[in-house]
Amino acid sequence: MQSQTIVFRQLVGDMMGPPTLTLGPKTPVRELVGRMTGEKASCAVVIDEGGRILGIVTEQDVTRRVALRATPQTKTAEIMTEGVQTIGLDDFLYRGIARMRRLGHRHMPVVDASGRLAGHLDLHTALAAASERTMARIELLTRESTVDGMGEVKAAQIELAQELFADELPTPEVQALLTDINNDITRRLADAGVAAMAEDGKGAPPVPFSMIVMGSGGRDENMLFPDQDNGFILADYEDREHDRIDGWFIQLAVRLNEMLDRVGFPLCKGYVMAQNPLWRKTESQWRAQIAGWQKKRDTTALRLADIFFDFRGVYGDAAMPDRLRRHVTKLTRGNLSFLCEMYRDDAEHGVALGWFGRFITVRDEPKHRGKINLKHTGTLPLIEGVRLLALREGIEDGPTLKRIDQLAEKGVFDTDEQDYLSGAFRHMSHLMLRQQLRDHARGEEASAYVSPKAMSAREKDYLRDCFRAVREFRSRLRSEFTGEIF
Which end of the chain is more exposed for a tag (fewer CB within 10 A), N or C? Predict the structure, then answer.
């Protein structure tokens, strides 16, 4: 029997068909009609020489527009409909289903990361992977973009995580789905916030902007209840316009941070949020701030950079975070003196393994005494170290496992180290997500504190091996970035 969660595990690219009929913008209508008839196509996608979508011509376009005003020599570009709705190759399938149902589309073009046509998604085919129960879950996960609606999405997300975990989906894949849902909630609340600003008479955004998320959300590694780590990138504007333009974005940021808090994303205790001017800047200001962090290199600057470097765009002008990512990569690649300082600042983050393979457990927190903080003394030392090497090598991909794989491709890791570190990340993440699901089921705050007593003997043995692998990795980093052997 097919798993009820299969549709949440598949990407659009897994289910798409080949591109539908494609034509150039200068194709005469005579040829358009002939090819649609000959290939029994219900629509034709108009693309440029680079494969990017310019528009679409449907059967209705042919009957209405061609019959009424076009001649056989009329160019397709003159009758096509622009602003074509698309879905991404790497988007989750359930999102594609929800989007087509919401728009009333039977087919939707699929595009790759660069916007080029890659195929098409057929609603009937996609629905074959979804049962009635699954469709009910999809409806919950794609509710209307209100605070109440997003709260329901958040609740449905937790239930889905429980089902995926029970289906033994690898934890990094569960994390990727949790991140996708969280970032979609953020995106839709941002859209609602912008609309609310206009309804309140404050107008549209005064300049183009992008909202970014940082930390685990930027790496596709969210657990159940991540707090807010977000910011704004604004298009450059004249200094004399600062009060007016930044004032608008302050109001949007406060609204958005409050809405996110209400639906289940706690306000960041470190104030890493768009309402903080440190995380709300123009493109030029961001570049200057990053350069300043690299020059100053004190503890505060290094920790701010550490938070920022895992950013990704989730709303608005997608080109802005892409440009900033390229700038960061260029600035940090091979910058060993700066990366060495980052390593020294993170050096205290060791794993929870003491003499004779004994676990180092929490002693100074009564609530968690006897447990391992698997985030701070497990995954964090690994994530930080892998990020350092990725920055050094100019690797832009965010997820830790992808960074490990790309570092192996570059020869930075041998096959054994790649296997050990990937396995360590997977096992520690698995234990942590399981603990959070158990905490939530008991009505307790979901945390990263895991008791050794809650693990099987095999899990404890494997965790010791994971800690040893990460500790050896950190020793290697110390040697490479500081020259110190002991």
Answer: N
Structural domain containing residue 24:
6-127
Q: How does strand 280-282 pair with strand 230-234?
A: parallel
Q: At what angle do helices 242-263 and 171-199 cross, to 10 degrees?
A: 130
**Locus of tokens 């549709």:** 7
Q: Is the pTM of this model over 0.70?
A: yes
The radius of gyration computed from the CA coordinates of the chain, to the nearest angstrom, equals 25
The total domain count for the chain is: 3
Q: Give yes or no: residues 295 and 350 share one domain.
A: no
Do residues 267 and 399 share a domain?
Answer: no
pLDDT tens for 250-278 read: 999 999 999 999 988 999 989 999 999 99
| Within a domain: 136 | no
Cα 225 → chain centroid: 15
How far apart, in Å, are the Cα atoms of 256 and each of 145, 210, 230, 259, 283? 12, 13, 10, 5, 21
**89, amino acid identity:** L
**What pLDDT, in 10s, does the model give residues 384-416?**
999 999 999 999 888 999 999 999 999 999 999
Residues 245, 269: contact at Cβ < 8 Å? no
Q: Are 207 and 292 in a shared domain?
A: yes
Cα(58)–Cα(107) distance, rounded to whole angstroms? 11
Q: Give the C-alpha separation, 5 to 16, whole Å.
A: 19
Residue 156 CA to residue 297 CA, distance in Å, equals 43
